[in-house]
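Structure (tokenized):
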């Protein structure tokens, strides 16, 4: 159910009947103030200009043509021609009765399922996954869950960085470690960061090691069995590290979704040949470059996009062109969404331009690079350890659970140690995720333990707690979420809660369109807050409440609980019955 769309299509029909073009903007919005009703139609003003008539008069004509009797209890024209609509309580109750039966809650059918490739997480396997990959992983995973819930076909792709010259030095170092009898699991890759640093130091300082590393790059690229084996060993161990983090984070990325950079190797030469043949790539100082006039600087110099290095090596960029072709032609994507930090914005603009010129993307395919800002420390600088190192994701998540445990222990009384540990895990991980997901995607944000673990304001603990409150009510009433009863919406708080419940689809649409999970976070926070006001104003289990009213309010509470649980699940956040 999408009330906004419904009003918009009704308005559109009325506009056409009044001689306006079918694509006239209906400008239906959620009302900014309760006094203005629930929704507004603001399209009369612009439409009146088109018809060269008085906007208020046009609004009146529109209202006459609009058949809203069934859904609206009040339709008012205000100001120069705003149409304010208050929905009928019985109509809202009927919509919610459908939702009570629907595993998709208030969501309608997806009229046109799309195939969407989502490229997210994508750590570089040469190094440990760090906080920089947190945002990509959880924002991407939230989008994926929303799209799937909506009914699109989603193909996850974890474009892991498993290729490039640094692997020469890493496998040369690994070889020496293994030869010295060091156990792979235990020492070599227990700390990837240290391992990388050691290898780099040898590369810079140790005679002969850099040459050996370069030799190993060449050998690796030409398929030498020994180097390949070492590389595979390294990659597999590094992937295991990432997968441990995925599991802690409760994300849906599995082994089967890994489509690493190296997977595109066989496609690279043919793509470069094609770019050359089409006259797009030209030789420049030994390298092959596509010059993009569209992205020229102020002086008019075109933006260079290198697709093959001097000496024949391919780049990150070449791989992304191959990925375009694969996703569009093999996977049949209608839309490709890629999450990386904002510093890669130019890269993806270049990739898209070149891919479109070269026909590596079918025309209808949307290519959405979704950049995100940096996670900052409370000192306002990019988030680092106290000694200035990169913060490892695995350690950060462990700390979150420890801190959550302390917070939950203060609040809870009657949980066993085991239950407490489970609650702490859900709260800790949920807090980190919600804090991130609730921020505007493209801005930098400050990472603050105290803010994210607070039970006040828009936080995971607040929402999880709201869910446990409803669970407690249901326990006291001796029912569960399967309970159903007819709804009657009497008080204003009940009506507002109903309208809010019916805004899930509108919210999800906006989230999916721009890949902005913060809108879902806001929605859930508002829903939980409205529930609290409802609960204060409308007694449920109090002595003397009529059974029909009590059951109706229980039903409304269940719909809120289910929506909270589902909504949090779309963010990859777990709930609990008690805390
Ligand atoms: N591995 C890259 C990084 O850590 C991100 C890859 C994103 N995906 C892509 N198709 N380039 O920055």
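Design, position by position:
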């Amino acid at each position: 159910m999408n009330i906004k769309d419904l009003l918009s299509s009704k308005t559109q029909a009325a506009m056409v009947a009044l001689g306006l073009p079918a694509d006239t903007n209906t400008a239906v919005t959620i009302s900014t103030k309760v006094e203005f009703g629930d929704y507004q139609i603001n399209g009369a003003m612009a439409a009146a200009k088109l018809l060269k008539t008085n906007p208020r008069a046009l609004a009146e004509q529109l209202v006459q043509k609009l058949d809203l009797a069934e859904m609206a209890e009040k339709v008012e024209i205000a100001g120069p021609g705003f149409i304010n609509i208050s929905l009928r309580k019985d109509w809202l109750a009927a919509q919610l009765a459908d939702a009570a039966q629907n595993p998709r809650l208030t969501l309608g059918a997806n009229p046109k399922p799309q195939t969407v490739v989502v490229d997210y997480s994508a750590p570089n396997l040469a190094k440990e996954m760090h906080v920089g990959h947190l945002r990509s992983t959880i924002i991407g995973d939230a989008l994926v869950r929303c799209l799937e819930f909506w009914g699109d076909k989603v193909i996850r792709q974890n474009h892991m960085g498993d290729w490039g010259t640094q692997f020469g030095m890493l496998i040369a170092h690994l070889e020496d470690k293994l030869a010295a009898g060091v156990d792979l699991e235990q020492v070599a890759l227990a700390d990837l960061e240290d391992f990388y640093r050691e290898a780099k130091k040898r590369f810079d300082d140790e005679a002969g090691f850099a040459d050996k590393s370069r030799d190993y790059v060449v050998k690796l690229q030409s398929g030498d069995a020994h180097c390949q084996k070492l590389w595979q060993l390294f990659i597999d161990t590094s992937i295991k590290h990432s997968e441990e983090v995925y599991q802690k984070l409760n994300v849906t990325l599995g082994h089967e979704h890994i489509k690493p950079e190296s997977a595109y190797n066989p496609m690279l030469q043919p793509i470069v040949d094609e770019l050359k043949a089409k006259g797009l790539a030209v030789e420049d100082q030994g390298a092959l470059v596509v010059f993009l006039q569209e992205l020229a600087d102020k002086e008019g110099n075109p933006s260079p996009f290198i697709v093959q290095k001097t000496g024949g090596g391919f780049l990150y960029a070449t791989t992304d062109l191959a990925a375009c072709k694969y996703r569009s032609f093999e996977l049949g994507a209608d839309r490709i969404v890629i999450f990386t930090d904002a510093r890669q914005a130019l890269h993806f603009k270049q990739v898209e331009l070149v891919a479109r010129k070269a026909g590596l993307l079918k025309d209808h395919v949307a290519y959405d690079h979704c950049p995100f800002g940096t996670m900052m420390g409370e000192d306002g600088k990019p988030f680092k350890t106290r000694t200035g190192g990169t913060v490892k994701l695995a350690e950060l998540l462990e700390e979150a659970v420890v801190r959550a445990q302390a917070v939950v222990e203060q609040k809870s009384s009657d949980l066993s140690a085991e239950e407490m540990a489970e609650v702490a895990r859900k709260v800790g991980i949920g807090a980190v995720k919600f804090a991130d997901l609730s921020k505007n995607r493209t801005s930098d944000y400050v990472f603050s333990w105290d803010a994210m673990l607070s039970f006040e304001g828009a936080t995971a603990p607040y929402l999880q707690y709201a869910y446990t409150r409803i669970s407690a009510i249901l326990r006291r009433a001796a029912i569960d979420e399967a309970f159903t009863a007819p709804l009657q919406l009497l008080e204003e708080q009940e009506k507002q809660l109903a309208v809010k419940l019916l805004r899930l689809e509108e919210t999800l649409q906006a989230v999916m369109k721009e890949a902005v999970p913060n809108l879902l976070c806001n929605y859930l926070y508002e829903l939980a807050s409205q529930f609290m006001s409802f609960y204060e104003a409308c007694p449920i289990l109090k002595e003397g409440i009529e059974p029909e009213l009590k059951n109706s309010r229980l039903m409304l509470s269940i719909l809120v609980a289910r929506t909270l649980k589902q909504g949090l699940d779309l963010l990859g956040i777990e709930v609990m019955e008690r805390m």
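Reviewer-requested clarification: The radius of gyration is 28 Å. Residues 225-249 form the longest helix (25 residues).
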